[in-house]
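FIELD: query
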Amino acid sequence: MKKNYVFTLLIGFAFALIANNVTAQGPYACLNLGYGLGKSTMNLEAWSFYNSTTTTSTQTDEQIVVSLGKGLNFGGTIGNMFNENVGAELGINYLLGGKAKAKDEYPDGTTEYKFYARMLRFIPAIVIAAGSDGINPYAKFGVVISTGSAKYEWEDNDNGDLMIAKWKYSGGIALGFMGAVGALYPLNDNMSLFVEINTINQSYAPKKGELKEATVNGVDQLPDLTTSQKEVEFVKETTYDFEGGAPPSSEPTEQLKQKLPLGSVGINFGIELRF
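FIELD: result
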């Protein structure tokens, strides 16, 4: 129900922009490319995501903080300036998340972990511009609606035996907020370059997880695994029946819902075309 409401809101926002373009002074479209650094980082100990070094006599653990919002992003925007100072826009952006890494070193081998996101983001926003004829500063604020997945991979080299597992966490919609400041540099009456600094505050709680790959020394292990071993369902509450025993292996394993950080602060640049 929430997903239908969100996409109805987005479609309505887009139609409002298009309808207003008939009489408004400044319809435009943009293409952009950018990179964000992680922000509002969190610990991911539920996924053993920390550095660990074990010897025959000691064990040293190092905490790692992660935001899956870091990485390359690219996309486009349609918008309309209702006058020289106020406008609205709808951006569609794809996050090609950078990989966060952790490592567990022990006497007989090493386990390496990777965590990253792939997100399609819809960003309806209000634009406030100075209205200058030359370089035109502006600010934006809006909401970020994301859908996609988070990928978790580990590779264990244990005394020459190589084990690989790759999980995909998906389902649900992430909501957050965006703010940006930037400036337009006009090339001619219809084309401008822009650069902006933006920040996104957002987290993502997937609904399910699926083991997409499991191999030992290159041999596929998925056909031999039960549903409970290769599927996870994230829920708000779990109950274990001590008398009834373990849940059936034919059903996904239930785990408490986890939130993954998607915050970032970064820079975008691109080109704007006015019609």
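FIELD: remark
The domain at 2-206+258-274 is CATH 2.40.160.20 (Porin).
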